[in-house]
C-alpha cells in the first residue's frame, strides 16, 4: 500500500552514533538543555531512567535538537532530518511527501530506545507506553503525524533478515503487555487481507527503516527505525477514492527516482484480496515478497 511508502518516509535514518556515558559532561549539558523542555522534570537528569515518566519519552524536534552533537540520539535525529528534507545536494526528494510535511510541521515525535535489542522488556515497556501516550496526542498533532522509534547504533552490521526478526519481536513483545482487547472487527490471523496490528484497542501502521537496506533507499537509515502511525492517519488521507488515488500517485511517482529496485510487490491497498499488511510493515531490500515469520503473534 502506498501508505507503506509514506510510512517508510517517516523513518529516516540516523547518523553514526557515539554513546555518551550518563556521567559525561556533555550529558549534563544536555540534561540542562532538555530540562527547559520538560517543565515537570526540571531538576532531574533525563538519563536516569527511573525518573522518566511515560510522557517524557515522546520527544519533539526541539528536544532532539537539544541533544549534544556527539550523542547518538542527535546524530540519528540529524540523519532522519537530512533524509526527510533531502538536505544532501545530490539527494532526490524523499518519496513520502507526507513524512516530509509532518517533519516540517513539527507533527513527529521521537522515542530513543534504551538499547539496540528492542525485545528487552525495558524497551518493550518503553514502546508500549509511548504508543499509549501517542495515540490520544496524535489527534492534536495533525494528519501528517508519525512516531519514530529510534534504536541506538550497533557495533556489528546486521542483515536485512536480522532486522526483520527484530521488528517482529517488537510486535510480539507489545502483544504480551497489551491490556486492551483486540478489536472484534479486525481478524487476528496475520495472513488475512483485513489484518492490521492492534494495540491498546486500536489499529496501527508500521514502517521499518534499517542500515541494511541499500537498493530500497526509501527504507534506509543509519539507525534501525520503526515509524508508527495510528490507523486514523490513513483513514483520513484516503477518505475518498479520489483522495486515495491522488495520495498514492504522489508518493509512487517519486519512488523510482529514489530506489534502485522496483516498488515492492508487497505494497497493496488495505483489504485487497491476497494481500496482507503483515507483508507491508517490513519491506525487503530486493524485489521479493516478505513472508511474515509468524502465523500467530502470540505463539511461544
Ligand atoms: C500533510 O502533508 C501533505 C503533503 O505535503 C499536505 O498537502 C497537507 O496539507 C498536510 N496536511 C496538513 C493538515 O497539514
Ligand atoms: C558496516 O557497513 C558499513 C557500510 O556498509 C561499512 O563501511 C563497515 O565497514 C561495516 N562494518 C563492519 C563491522 O562490517
Ligand atoms: C519484480 O517483481 C515483479 C513481480 O512481483 C515482476 O513483475 C517484475 O518484473 C520484477 N522486476 C524486476 C526488475 O525483476
From TrEMBL:
InterPro entries: Uncharacterised_YqcI/YcgG
Name of protein: YqcI/YcgG family protein
One Pfam family from the record: YqcI_YcgG
Signal peptide: 1-17
Swiss-Prot/TrEMBL keywords: Signal
Amino acid at each position: 500500500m502506498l501508505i507503506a511508502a509514506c510510512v517508510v518516509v517517516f523513518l529516516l535514518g540516523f547518523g553514526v552514533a557515539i554513546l555518551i556515558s550518563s556521567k559525561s559532561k556533555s550529558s549534563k549539558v544536555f540534561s540542562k538543555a532538555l530540562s527547559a523542555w520538560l517543565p515537570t522534570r526540571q531538576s532531574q537528569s533525563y538519563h536516569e531512567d527511573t525518573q522518566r515518566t511515560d510522557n517524557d519519552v515522546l520527544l519533539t524536534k526541539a528536544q532532539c535538537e537539544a541533544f549534544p552533537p556527539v550523542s547518538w540520539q542527535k546524530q540519528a535525529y540529524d540523519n532522519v532530518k537530512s533524509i526527510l528534507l533531502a538536505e544532501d545536494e545530490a539527494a532526490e526528494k524523499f518519496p513520502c511527501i507526507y513524512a516530509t510535511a509532518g517533519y516540517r510541521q513539527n507533527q513527529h515525535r521521537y522515542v530513543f530506545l534504551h538499547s539496540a535489542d528492542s525485545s528487552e522488556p525495558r524497551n518493550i515497556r518503553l514502546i508500549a507506553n509511548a504508543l499509549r501516550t501517542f495515540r490520544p496526542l496524535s489527534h492534536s498533532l495533525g494528519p501528517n503525524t508519525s512516531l519514530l522509534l529510534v534504536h541506538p547504533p550497533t557495533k556489528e552490521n546486521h542483515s536485512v533478515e536480522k532486522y526483520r526478526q527484530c521488528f517482529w519481536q517488537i510486535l510480539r513483545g507489545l502483544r504480551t503487555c497489551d491490556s486492551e482487547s483486540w478489536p472484534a472487527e479486525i481478524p487476528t490471523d496475520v495472513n488475512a487481507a483485513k489484518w492490521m496490528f492492534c494495540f491498546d484497542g486500536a489499529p496501527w501502521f508500521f514502517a521499518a527503516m534499517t542500515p541494511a537496506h541499500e537498493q530500497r533507499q526509501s527504507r534506509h537509515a543509519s539507525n534501525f527505525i520503526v515509524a508508527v502511525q495510528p490507523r486514523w492517519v490513513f483513514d483520513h488521507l484516503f477518505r475518498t477514492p479520489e483522495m486515495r488515488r491522488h495520495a498514492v500517485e504522489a508518493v509512487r511517482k517519486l519512488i523510482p527516482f529514489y530506489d534502485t529496485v522496483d516498488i515492492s510487490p508487497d505494497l497493496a491497498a488495505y483489504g485487497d484480496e491476497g494481500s496482507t499488511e503483515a507483508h507491508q510493515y517490513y519491506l525487503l531490500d530486493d524485489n521479493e515478497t516478505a513472508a511474515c515469520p509468524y502465523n500467530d503473534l502470540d505463539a511461544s
